[in-house]
Amino acid sequence: MSHKIIKATPEDNKILSDLCFEIYPQTFSYLWHDEGKWYMETMYNPDKMLQELEDKNSEFYFLTINDEPRGYLKLNHSFKDEPESFEIERIYIDQNFTGQGYGNILLNFGIEIARLMERKTVYLKVMASGIGTIKFYEKNGFEAIGSELLPYELLKSELRTINTMKKIL
To answer: Model pTM greater than 0.85?
Structure first.
């Protein structure tokens, strides 16, 4: 299977929205009382995706496999108020293609962009219940530095914890 990483543009908002609605529940529906419907409709609708795609401090990249979008990466040029920081906000991959190295490809792509921007630290957040994902990031040099509870009412209370991880470049 051939893959490419292609930068998304604001005109891709509907494609990105559709991809989110397809991929998000594969991994995260267990967190929600409504299987994530409210969250997806709020955070991944085409208008919200357009707003995010137009943000000059963020970049989106599609992972295409055989010329079809099967995942994406969202990068932020800084994290909180740290000017020399960078954030990998989302790495989403269709579960039909997980375990094939695409997560590493997207993670390394994001880290390379951080290096090209001369950032010193890369941050990301990961759900505390995602043990396998946490181990993946640790294997790639990230360390946990804190956690917080997400405020969404429809999240199951025992699954609201999200961890912040960082890697020094």
So the answer is: yes
Question: Which of 166, 52, 62, 49 is closest to 114 using CA atoms?
Answer: 166
Helix orientation angle between 13-28 and 46-53, rounded to the nearest 10 degrees: 110
Q: CA 62 → CA 96, 105, 106, distances in Å?
A: 16, 12, 9
**Per-residue confidence in pLDDT tens, the chain, 169 aa:** 799 999 999 999 999 999 999 999 999 999 999 999 999 999 999 999 999 999 999 999 999 999 999 999 999 999 998 989 999 999 999 999 999 999 999 999 999 999 999 999 999 999 999 999 999 999 999 999 999 999 999 999 999 999 999 999 9
User: Residue 76's beta-bridge partner residues?
Assistant: 58, 87
Q: Which domains does the chain have, with CATH numbers?
A: 3-168 (3.40.630.30)
